[in-house]
Amino acid sequence: MEFYIFDLNLERKGIVDDFIEVELNSKYDDLGKLHLIVDGTKENVELLQVDRIITKATDITKGYIIKTRDYRDNQSTELEIIAPSINKILNDRLVLGQQEYTGTIENVMKSFVNANAVNPANPNRIIPNLEISENRGIPFEVKEGTVNKPLCDYLYEIAKKNDVSFDILLDHTNKKFVFDVWQGEDRSALQSENPHVIFSKEFENVLTQNYVDDINGYKSTAIVLGEEIEGQTQEIVTVNDDNVGFERKEILVESTNLKRTYRDENGVERTQTEEEYRKLLEENGRNTLAEYQPTKTLESNVDPLSNFIYGVDYFMGDKVSVRDDDLGIILHTRIISVVEKGDKQGNKLQVNFGSNIPDLLTRIKKVVNN
After folding, report:
1. How far apart are CA 167 and CA 178, in angstroms?
2. Residue 93 is part of which domain span?
3. What whole-number distance in Å separates Cα of residue 151 and Cα of residue 99?
4. Which of the listed residues 84, 104, 121 is the one where a domain comes to its end?
5. CB-CB neighbours of 93 under 10 Å
6. HSE-CB for 100 with a 13 A CA cutoff
7. Rounded distance, CA 130 to CA 300, Å?
8. pLDDT of 228-237, one tens digit each?
9. b vs e for 140-160, b when ≥16 Cβ sit within 10 Å of the residue's Cβ?
10. What does pTM read for this prediction?
11. Total structural domains in the chain?
12. Is the separation of the CB atoms in 91 and 85 below 8 Å?
């Protein structure tokens, strides 16, 4: 692997093609991350500065922004770089105040970005050189709203529920950051429009597999509390109230900060009907439930030289079919993360199919919130 380094003006500053170790973790429903260890030379220290952008030489539209670097001087000097996806710059802005939008999932997500980072009421909130892409035509309608949440975190929250993803793409020709909402292609054996992509040991394109089926922390029913108004009964909405018995696993979602009457980002007072307000609370409950779904994942070390080539025959977010014939399991599901590893011994490719396995920090947060 070879990497290009750019500054925030998308001017190229150098190349990294010699490293001790690299791990590139791309994700469909969360922030990806690049972890890079290089020799601690003066040239590397000067090149790999914080807030510089790293891309793969083979795909300069996807960037990772350096946020942490650790210089270690022991028996030999090493420079460790941690760079989350460039999408993280959206967390430099809040969804300020109460904001709500209705429309297609693309238009709704782009409206939040436009109002808080592209054309906000306060021009000081503009993220430089950020613009919004043309729509791809993802059809389904949504209603979403929140109050004072970090923008990137909230976009992943609603994207996960609606089975889409988003990226800030690097337009090097025009020196722009382009916000885009997208959805992976269906290449599974359940459809006939695209060539099938099927992974299994039988087809000799999977080296090892690890199957995880985890319902720890699973919640199926959300009880959503609306705003509290003195002298009035508090609005309570239950999402999936028809769940009963052992299938009913409740979670309380306090949405008291969502108001019926509020001022939008432009200072205009707006009042929702009872139906509109209940719909907003319901969607907030569904967003929460999307974070507490069962985990069913086939983690596979894929042969990068097999009949299917990553980045050619299949891509992040695509739906594919994956089998474990020993267990009698077949999933027709999305690729939700891809880990590319490289060191002096060569390259490895790990592909995760199904639900993302929460990391330790995410699990701790869920325990605290419950």
Report:
1. 8
2. 89-182
3. 11
4. 84
5. 21
6. 23
7. 36
8. 888 888 999 9
9. eebebbbbebebbbbbbbbbb
10. 0.87
11. 4
12. no
